[in-house]
Design goal:
1 helix, 14% helix, mainly beta, six-stranded antiparallel beta sheet, single chain, Immunoglobulin-like
Length: 150
């Protein structure tokens, strides 16, 4: 193999490896629980069903997968149906009950709990976005809201 060909192979592998690392710049885990309920389910795959009028919380753990992250956890964007999820906005189908506050639990590890009340039946999308030059992060969480239990 010529030096030129070897250099091309090494550059291609470096680009592929760099892309793979950038694609996983942050690692998030999500669990959903009813307020005061110790039963938790992972928010991955099928949309969990919650009930109108009930309070819930989404517990989030974030781990930065690289050193020297320039994006603060507070800069994580939460969009509900493509609009910024705002505190006590009664026009949104999932009413955010308090500001989203992050706590650092270890080096490059953070946690938060988002409390909300389900206000309208339907299937709703929450986009979690972190924009940075190291690949960023974008996750879609789906939550289905059903009528209140009788």
């Amino acid at each position: 193999m010529s030096v030129h060909m070897l250099r091309r192979v090494v550059c291609t592998l470096a680009l592929l490896l760099g892309s793979a690392l950038a694609a996983s710049a942050c690692i998030f885990t999500y669990t959903l629980a009813g307020a005061g309920d110790e039963t938790q389910i992972a928010l991955s795959g099928a949309a969990p069903v919650v009930r109108v009028g009930e309070r819930y919380r989404i517990e989030i753990t974030m781990r930065e997968n690289h050193a020297n992250c320039r994006i603060d956890p507070e800069d994580t964007l939460f969009l509900l149906e493509e609009a910024r999820w705002r505190v006590l906005r009664e026009t949104q189908p999932l009413v955010l009950l308090a500001e989203i506050e992050w706590e650092q639990i270890a080096t490059r590890r953070y946690t938060t709990a988002i409390e909300f009340r389900a206000a309208e039946t339907g299937l709703y999308r929450i986009d979690v976005i972190r924009e940075c030059d190291r690949g960023g992060y974008h996750e879609v969480l789906l939550i289905e809201v059903a009528e209140a239990a009788s």
